[in-house]
Amino acid sequence: MKKTGGQAQGGSKPSEVRSSALVPVNNASKSLKTSESKSSKSLAKAEPEFDYRSLGKVSSGDKTAKSNSNSKSKSKSKSSKKESKSIAAEYGFIKGANKGSRFKNNPFAPFIVIAASVILVAGVVLAVLYYIGAFEEKVQVTLADGTVTKITTEQAYAELQTDKFYSGIVIDGIDVGGMTYDEAYNAITAKQPAKPLSVDIRLSLAGKLLYLDFSDATFEYNTRQILDEAYAMYRLPAEADLTQVVECYNNVQQLKNTPKTYKTAYTIQIESVNERINKVLDLYVDEFALVKNASIESFDMDTCEFVISPEKTGYAIDVDATAKEVKALFDSQVYSGIIEVPTEVKEPEITEAMIRENVGLIGDCSTSCSNNTNRNSNISQACDNMNGTILQPGQVFSFNEVVGQRTAENGFKEATVILGGQYEQGLGGGICQASTTLYNAVLEANLAVVERNAHAWPSDYVQTGLDATVDWPALDFKFKNDTDYQVIIVTWFDWDDRTVNAEIYGQKLPDGQYIEIEAVITSTTPAGPDEFVEDKELPTGQTKTIRQAHEGMTAKAYKVWYNSDGEEIDRVLYNETTYYPFGRRIGVGVLNPDGTYATMDKKTGEITSQIMTPTPGPTPTPEPTPTPEPTTEATTEPPETTPAPTPTPEPPPETTPEPTPTPEPPAEQPAEQPAEQPAEGGT
Questions:
Q1: Strands, DSSP E only, in 73-206?
Q2: Residues near 595 by Cβ (< 8 Å), separated by ≥ 6?
Q3: Is the pLDDT of residue 224 over 90?
Q4: How far apart are CA 181 and CA 164, in angstroms?
């Protein structure tokens, strides 16, 4: 049989508590009423139904109920007496009654009166017992001290159906037992700080701690949620049977000995988490994303070692993933800690260790110079301008760009140059020996030559076919760094032994291999006939040799490969250079004494016009006097400079030999040599 508990399942706030005056009716009472009802119906014609409740029931604590009950009881009692008198009179037991009654001489009349009285008294007793709960069903419960006893369901309901928290409920250290919902809420919130903590979240980015500013964060407590949960504890469901009533009652009693504690918590309200993180990390995205290869900054001429800038690892910062981790921390109610910023590591392609292992001396050349001060000074200036040049992978070196225009302002002096197929004086004379020396070092380094031009005739300071002339701005010497590493050019002029030195440092050839350059003359052509040209500054009839005769020839250059043991492993034709023949060029004077000019036969060099002289008499024709080539000049002391020491090449690393590559000769600009060439920067 179900009982109405008067309280919804899970409890409710005080406004929803039903009146505890609702008392369930037990089964025994119903059975008794049913039996009485049937009995009354069977005697309906004999006598009226007797209302036992008219005897009254005093309800504890309700004076109005007592008054009403007494009033009703008196009224019903008078009515009952009248009915009893009527019955007695009907049966002839009352004097003065109708003498014609059929019960006048009934011998059972006394017994009937006695039975009616007994029934009347029994009804009154039953009514009293009903109203004092004697017939209400009792339940067995366990009190807080462990005592097992029986109480009526009304008593159990009265204690469970309160609008206050049960004794033994503690929230945030406050015993709220006996408090109403509002009283408990006020007591708890009074102890809660407005800002329980400061948010201290930091980001760790590659070992660097970054602070996130959450100073404007707000906090929200779950106080009402906890109060609702605590208030609903052990409350009767909407329809509860006796078993549930006993269970809830016993649990409430046990709370008095074993309190139930609750703890409120708070959540943090933070706006724009992503924007805050972006604001901090954006300052480092570009910096950390940068991947830097190790690189050679310079070459120390004293120690012959590289000055290397170390590599730098890059990090691709994942800003979105960082924001998710911070939010996850807040969701778990953790408001302090260090978040490692998710990054994708980007390793450099070249490290300092790789440079030291794979970069070394790969080509060098040294040539000797004459004792010509101006010429050597020009060569030294060109070497100084080139020394220390570093080429990045794929970069092209230009002699003219690096050395610059040959002017006095740039430190160059006049010296012999080849101009128009003959020797002349010009600024920067001699620097072709610097470009030629560098060219040979580049060939040994196996770098790609982009532009090279040969002289009009072979130079005597290098093998035939291995020279490289330059002239501003028409003729240039260029080569490309076609390796994976930087290329360093080291050049200097040694004034002690008058040598030009060029060294190339870069990616070493495999397995300790190296290259040497050999040139072979494959054909020659006789020099051409003498050439005669007018010299308007030379007296008529006098001659001088402007250019010696040069035979033509063809030479082939080979790159000869050697292994680490010095054994030849390959010989590759690199290029072929052709020098055209030149005849001797003789200058013939045509300046007459009176300032006029004589005429000359250009085929024979003979004067064809009359020679005018200030005094009569035959003027002998002087024999042509050959003029030697200005290959050397008067010996002068070189300027006082400190020559750069010759770098010591690094020994090749010990590596496992690999198959020897067969390099293809790089494309090189063919040297076209017309009969008359433009000025060349040196000899």
A1: 138-142, 148-152, 169-171, 174-175, 200-205
A2: none
A3: yes
A4: 7
